[in-house]
Amino acid sequence: MNVLLALPESSIAYNIRETMSRVDGIRLSILENLDEKQGIDLKGFDLVVVNGGDKGILKYFHKVGIDSPPVLGVYEEESTGFLAQVDVRDLLNVLRMIMSGRYKVEEVTRLAVEVDGREHEPVLNDVALFPSKSASLIEYRLKVNGEDVWHDRSDGLILSTPVGSTAYSLSAGGPIVLRNARVFLVVPVNSMDITRRPLIVSDDSTVEVGDIISRYKCEVVLDGGNRVTVKNTLRCYRYRYPARLVKVEGYSSASSVIAKKVRLAEDMLGMPPSAKLVLKTLEYEGALNQRELITKTMLPARTVRLALNHLIMKGYVRRRASLRDAREKIYELRV
Fold this sequence. Notes:
Number of domains: 3
Strand order of the largest sheet: 8-7-18-15-10-11
Mean pLDDT: 86
Helix content: 10-25%
CATH class of the largest domain: Mainly Beta
CATH superfamily of the largest domain: Probable inorganic polyphosphate/atp-NAD kinase, domain 2
């Protein structure tokens, strides 16, 4: 089996390479640079192993706009993943199961994104539309397949895939949707009109958000990462290439992912608002130090420290030393 290891610069890449060398029949290649503009040749590969947890999975599918072989996501020990569902400690056993044919490939829909007529990277979770400054409203008109659905004023809007239904969309009041559902979600965030409820549309629909107005410039946020300024129109539809994810029995249960998210959502009801904000920031930005958290959340340093202590005590966040400077502490999700 021809296997490609993507994102080899992560801290667990060496362990993954050493583990693969112990499995007979694997011919390993390394993808050093995830930049489609320089050309990514995936022909001839049977499997792509992506390390770096959920963040690595998202980065891979953002950069690879072409049809990809099935992807196996690996996360670091003492952490857990929702997209990357194989602990590096279980990788040897999982690879042997794959080599013996005991796995399935799940195809999940991605969203194509056009901002003001220009195509951007497809997303696996969600597209969020917000003003660049918090605590300000956005006004927009929503169309599905060219027909007006509503005109709204709200804090923002989230367009989500079924995979993304347990991410940002869930925090905004959207429903949990199983991955194999052929739908997209449209979730208004704190609408001024109580009739603006989450909307589910078929995944062969084209969703257009137009006539976008706000006191400040508005941005489209792709999977919680890259930001694109939008002047008038956001258009989304099913991307031509789905993401294909490897499912191994006992390691990749959709119900277990939903159960983890439901437990987290229940616990968040009693969390301090500052802890919720820090948790969501780490979920979308990845591992950060305390200084970066203060900058991104705009919370006072003492508030961030208290929020981190609460999340560490509850087991949602772990603290580790930076690889660059052992004196610096890095905070990352454990859920």
